[in-house]
Structures are given as structure tokens and as C-alpha cells.
From TrEMBL:
Gene3D superfamilies: 5'-nuclease. The keyword Nucleus applies. It comes from the Eukaryota. It holds the Pfam family Fcf1. This is rRNA-processing protein UTP23 homolog. InterPro entries: Fcf1/UTP23 (IPR006984), PIN-like_dom_sf (IPR029060), UTP23_sensor (IPR057776). Involved in rRNA-processing and ribosome biogenesis. It is found in: Nucleus, Nucleolus. Its main location: nucleus. Belongs to the UTP23/FCF1 family. UTP23 subfamily.
Length: 250
């Protein structure tokens, strides 16, 4: 039975890794009911959880879960000591604590974006967790820790993604990161709503140059006219100086 449980756990972990992008260190949220059951069954959570998940883990809880154990009295004092050793994650109920089941559900939201595992023995919390896609569930049965099979909601979502009807959470995250890099999204929508101010444009430096005046027909040079007159005069003088032929007596 132990080997069979390990094979089933390995199969379930790989399902969440490939379909919902779960990565090490695995984050596990605990409430007081799970710690109380582990204390009764003498289960060492810190030792067994890394072996069970075959990787590094982070054991976490919330302030509301600790406050709930304080109000329940001395019967759960041992569970409170165990839970106090874990990392306390910030929740939205710091000033006004709520029941642990309500707090853990609020930490997961609708899609479990932080990839939490949840360890609990609370039936009402378990019923709420099975309605959230991509939410692995731990519980204790027969003195052993058990990782529950993927819920029907998770299986339906994976099937819808494979058929192309939905976008997987990993793809959604990559799309968001690409939008942020390109400056597209809510910031871009805000920019579109606002009117853009036109920048002051400087005049074209070529347009500032003075236009060249178009010149008219160039007048004939005086030198050429004088030269032509001189040449004509010289020709006339030469023709006048030629002597007439002498008359011969016959």
C-alpha cells in the first residue's frame, strides 16, 4: 500500500506541475485541525512532507489560523505550538481575524495564483477547496498523510485547455508579463482615455533660408560692344588707305 500511495502521489504532483505550473519549493498552507491530527497520530510534518512531495517545501500558515487556536483554549495548545513554527503569510484580515477556513479560501482566490497546497481536516474547507481549480489537498487518514486526487474542476479545466477552449494559467501569466514588457494593459487603457499633448515642433531649418531671386536675362557686356566697334573702324581705315591703280599712257 505504501508503494502504491507513493506512485499515486508522484502522478498527482506531476499533474499539478505540468498543468498548473507548480514548482519547488512547494508552499503548503496549514490550519490547526491538520496539526492537531498530526500530533495525535505522532506524525512529524517537517520530516515527512519533503519526502512525500520529493522536493523542497515551505510550511506556511496565516494569522487567522493562529488566532483561532488561541480562542479554542488549552485543548489545542500543542497544535498551536506546531503552527507557530511555520511561516506566517500576510492575509487581508490582520485587524479583524476571521475563521481559518474563510481565511485560507481567501488566500487561494478563484485560481490559486500563488500555487499553494492546503493541509486541513476541516470538511467545510475541503468542500470549498474542491471548487477551486489547481488546488492540491492534504489530509491525514489511517496515521498517514495523503495527497488527494485532482478535483473534477481541475480535470475539467485541463480538458478545456487541451481542446483549445481556455487558456491555461501558465499561458495567462506569460501573456500578462509580455503585456507589461510592451506597456500594454491597464496603463495603456488609461493612456488612451487621456488626450495626448502635442509636442512643440521646431521649424524646418531649410524653410528658414532666404529664397534666391530669379535673375533676368543678362545684358551684353560693354567690352564686346567696344571691341566690335574698334574692329569695324579698323576695317574702314584700311579700305580708305588702299591707293588707286596708276594710269598708263598708251
Amino acid at each position: 500500500m505504501k508503494i502504491k500511495r507513493q506512485k499515486q502521489a508522484k502522478k498527482t504532483i506531476s499533474f499539478y506541475k505540468y498543468n498548473f505550473s507548480f514548482r519547488e519549493p512547494f508552499q503548503i498552507l496549514f490550519d490547526g485541525t491538520f496539526c492537531q491530527a498530526a500530533l495525535k497520530n505522532k506524525i512529524q510534518i517537517k520530516e515527512q512532507m519533503p519526502k512525500y512531495l520529493m522536493g523542497e517545501v515551505q510550511l506556511c500558515t496565516t494569522n487567522c489560523a493562529l488566532k483561532e487556536l488561541e480562542t479554542l483554549g488549552k485543548e489545542l495548545y500543542g497544535a498551536k505550538l506546531i503552527l507557530q513554527r511555520y511561516q506566517v503569510r500576510n492575509c487581508a484580515h490582520f485587524k479583524s481575524p476571521v475563521p481559518a477556513s474563510e481565511c485560507l479560501l481567501s488566500m487561494l482566490g478563484e485560481t490559486n495564483p500563488h500555487h499553494y497546497f492546503v493541509a486541513t481536516q476541516d470538511h467545510t474547507l475541503t468542500a470549498g477547496l474542491k471548487k477551486i481549480s489547481g488546488c492540491p489537498l492534504f489530509y491525514i487518514i489511517s496515521n498517514t498523510i495523503v495527497l488527494d486526487k485532482p478535483s473534477q474542476v481541475s480535470l475539467d479545466q485541463v480538458q478545456a485547455v487541451s481542446l483549445g477552449e481556455l487558456v491555461s494559467p501558465a499561458q495567462q501569466q506569460s501573456i500578462r508579463s509580455l503585456k507589461e514588457e510592451q506597456g500594454i494593459g491597464q496603463v495603456d487603457g488609461e493612456r488612451r482615455g487621456k488626450k495626448r499633448r502635442r509636442k512643440k515642433s521646431h521649424p524646418n531649418p531649410l524653410s528658414c533660408l532666404k529664397k534666391k531671386k530669379k535673375g533676368g536675362p543678362t545684358p551684353p557686356r560693354k567690352k564686346t560692344e567696344e571691341g566690335e566697334k574698334k574692329r569695324n573702324r579698323q576695317k574702314k581705315q584700311k579700305t580708305e588707305e588702299v591707293p588707286a591703280p596708276a594710269k598708263t599712257n598708251t
